[in-house]
Amino acid sequence: MPFCTSAWGSEEKAEFSIYLFQNGMPIADAEVAIQSEVYETTHPEMTNAVPGEIIWRGGDGKTALKSNENGSVAGKLPPGHYQITISAIEQTFNFDLPLHPAENVQILVTFFPDGKKPLLNSESSVTATVADAKSSIEEMPSQGNGTLAVQILSAETGKPIKGVQVFVSGLKQKLRSDDNGSIKVEASAGIY
């Protein structure tokens, strides 16, 4: 997976992963542009496009970021507001991505063969943060703790799947299914 890191200041960076699909298959070699109007250009992967606008490039600092054979691009960026542009299958799709310190966000973009607007799904470790949202949802007061329990089963065989990584919006833990395809985690009561 193309995974790029950056070296700004001491603030903890946010991690992101973008996954691109069409007809259930990953989209390889899609161009992904990440732009911001906020950060300095001390890292070689950031270049000035026009005064005040920064574009994140591939590892050589010149070529565009491209999705790998699994249809994904991942990296770490300083907290801030980014604009993502994806060019894939004769279509261009844009969305905003707000990032918070130490956040982990997973983004799935599904393209459709008929050219209709792609479907954007995102999950974040920061409660009420959603890609392409114009503002954050107000956080609910704590109502105690509870347990989230999930079992991942294969759609084809109905058998449990081991090692599936699950992201729960609002939790910072990295969760993986056990030998029985199960995940169990304690969490504050709320909307996930």
Describe the structure.
The chain is mainly beta and 192 residues long. It has no helices and 16 strands. Strands 1, 2, 3, 8, 11 and 12 form a 6-stranded mixed beta sheet that branches. Strands 4, 5, 6, 7, 9 and 10 form a 6-stranded antiparallel beta sheet that branches. A hairpin with a 2-residue loop joins strand 5 and strand 6. It is globular. It starts with a strand and ends with a strand. Residues 1-10 and 39-52 have low confidence and may be disordered.
Percentage of residues assigned to helices: under 10%
Mean pLDDT: 77
Radius of gyration, rounded?
18 Å
- The topology string of helices and strands comes to EEEEEEEEEEEEEEEE
Main beta sheet, described?
Answer: 6 strands, mixed
Number of helices: 0
According to DSSP, the number of beta strands is 16
Name the beta content range: 35-45%
Q: Which parts are unreliable, with pLDDT below 50 for 5 consecutive residues or more?
A: 1-10, 39-52
The outline comes out as globular
| CA(first)-CA(last) distance | 27 Å
User: How does the helix and strand content classify structurally?
Assistant: mainly beta
